[in-house]
Amino acid sequence: MSNQTEQRPAESGGGVAAPAKRANVVETLFRFQSFFGLVTVFLAAVIFSPRNDGQILFLTSDNLFNIVRAVSEIGIIAVGLTFVILIGGIDLSVGSVLGLAAVGSAVLMVEDGFGVWTTVALVLLAGIAFGLLQGTAVALLGVQAFIVTLAGLQIARGLARMWSGGETVQISYGDGPGQAPMLFSLLGERTFGGVVPIPALIFAVVAIVAILFLRGSAYSRHLYAIGGNEKAARLSGVPVNRVKIIAFGIAGFCAALAGIVHAGQLNAGSPNDGIAYELDGIAAVVVGGTSLAGGRGSVIGTIAGALLLGILNNILSLNSVNTDLQLLIKGLVIVAAAALQRLRPTS
Amino acid sequence: MRKTTKSLIAVTCATAAFAAAGCGTTSENTGQVQNQDPTKNCKGPNEKYTIGMSQANLAEPYRVRMDDDIRKAAEKVPQFDVQFSDAAKDNSKQISDVENFLTKQVDLMMISPNEAAPLTDVVKKAYNKGIPVVVLDRKVDGEAFTTYVGADNVQIGRQAGEYFKNALLPDGGKIVQIKGLSGSTPAAEREQGFKEGIQGSKIEIAATADGEWERSVGQQKMDALLKANPDIKAVYAQNDPMAEGAYLAAQAAGRNDLKFVGIDGLPIPSGGIKAVEDGRLQATNLYPTGGAEAVEAAKKLLIDCQPVPKTQTLETALVTKDNAAEVYARLNQG
To answer: B185 — contact with chain A (CB < 8 Å)?
Structure first.
């Protein structure tokens, strides 16, 4: 977002005053599409919320934090996906990597007796390595990201099944052998008066770090440049391969982090964790206004997109909307968001 | 840069708003199991009650039927309004589903958990809030629930084994077993029970394949099993869809002499009882959904203010051609 925001006015700065101004308004509307969408859905949720003795159930603190907790894993994944999608790539492996990381966290602590920090470090390193490998295949071998990460999806799932012996590895806490340190159980807990779920805090930190990282860094300029026009970027001296590989590494890191959070929240690592999460993540990115063609979008948009889908899930459930109809409505929202992007004026 | 700053401020404000909304109240901590009076929510027959039913998935016909059984039984209790959610085999989603029911302040919770360990904490949270919890089919860890309603998988496996020993293959012979998804508890328990059931007979399990509970996988695995074990006489499948798949594979291979036994006995047109009636399966073992019993427990707790037993093990029954039509009709009446 940051670079784009800075570049755009410069590009269109020389235009005739009046039309340019109107174009700016339209442009702003579209740029913050996901934010307006989020506000709209939030207000709709307040209006349509079931009430109890005049209390708006949607707005109860428990409920709002439940939403953020439920969104946190997909949100973290989606932040990582944003980097890959900004360069016009895709990462289909993130759901499986989440499963692998969840299984890994459980096995390392419960069966291998590692401490929390060693486990977290090892799992995150494995996630980064997995992403970097995929990125290398995309950048250096020139295989399409869709294919590489489709293979990655299978490989990570296979590794998760092998590592766990095909069974859910349960995490119980304590000091004895076969038990995980109490510290890890914090992930499933709530803090600040028992209200704020720790996964939501982790999501917030990831989001802020990603926003700051994308704000004006050279790496971020390179990301947008590659997504906009890879050839031109290469010709103007952007280290295209390196930027690409790092983007996949970031996606792998985020997926592994989400997997650690997942294992902590559920007190278990199951080889079937995270199936189809990549699709929810991509949905959040798309609803957040990032173009799958690359070059346009933002982490802030992705976060708004993830929250929007989370609120939508929540309010539909609170109103006991039939599950089949829920799927239909969510599908329509994704299509609408993508269609709005097509309408957005190109500069 | 300016706009970026603005949006950062916007996000910060939103976060602050969320945090502010959070102040003032505290949620239940998931700590110790509190001893509760299970009939605390009982307000007698003149009140309305909302019940939340969290289903693990609706991909299996067995679970669709469970929801239907609950719906049907609840229709006869005018005080009850049952709301359903579908976790689509996702533990995280099921936790959210339960939390949403808590937000809606349901009077009673029913849950058929996707997996025990991940769902235990949130079920405990509901229970500690004083909401009666009826657990169906699959269990949760510990004691933080009001009542468990389900059939015994070891027992149903044993029943299937005894049918092989006493009726199907009294002289013994080789059979194959098609298991459910490896790693799932019902698969292990149905195998253990079956082995107990055939003990002391001359029946030998020549091979076991993982059919993942699915018809198509059962068919695929049976193709290979038939090639490797041409001398088998019968197939024990841990559910009816896999038995039907195996039947199709045997038909394609021209093995009309083989006998098939499944488990579940769903009383629906595509279910095991009809397959027995039509002669594709020799027998199926009725694995009741417990839907009606769960509603009965809810009625006792909320309307009659009566306690219910902690565990209610459902009766299973063998369904053969002799009683298939009668069982089908009985399970679908009213």
So the answer is: no
DSSP character string of B172-228? -EEEEEEESSTT-HHHHHHHHHHHHHTTTSSEEEEEEEE-TT-HHHHHHHHHHHHHH
User: Does B9 lie at the interface with A, CB-CB under 8 angstroms?
Assistant: no
State the average pLDDT over residues B221-230.
92
pLDDT value, residue A16: 45
Selecting from B100, B105, B117 the residue whose C-beta is nearest the C-beta of A267 gives: B117
Q: So what's the pLDDT on residue B35?
A: 61
Q: Are B272 and B245 in contact (CB under 8 A)?
A: no
Using alpha carbons, select from B137, B63, B210 the residue that is nearest to residue A161.
Answer: B210
* pTM check: above 0.90: no
Range in B15-19, B58-62, B235-239 with the lowest mean pLDDT: B15-19
Please report the pLDDT score of residue B155 as a whole number: 95
Here the tokens at position B270 are 């595509």
Minimal C-alpha gap between B113 and chain A (Å): 13
Put simply, the answer to whether A66 touches B96 (Cβ < 8 Å) is yes
Choosing among B1, B5, B100, which should be mutated to test the A contact, i.e. which has the most A CBs within 10 A? B100
What's the rounded Cα separation, in Å, for the pair A200 and B95? Answer: 15
ipTM, interface predicted TM-score of the complex: 0.82
Question: Of the candidates A132, A99, A38, which has an alpha carbon nearest to the alpha carbon of residue A259?
Answer: A99
- The per-residue b/e assignment along A266-295, b for 16 or more CB within 10 angstroms, e otherwise, is bbbbbbbbbbebbebbbbbbbbbbbbeebb
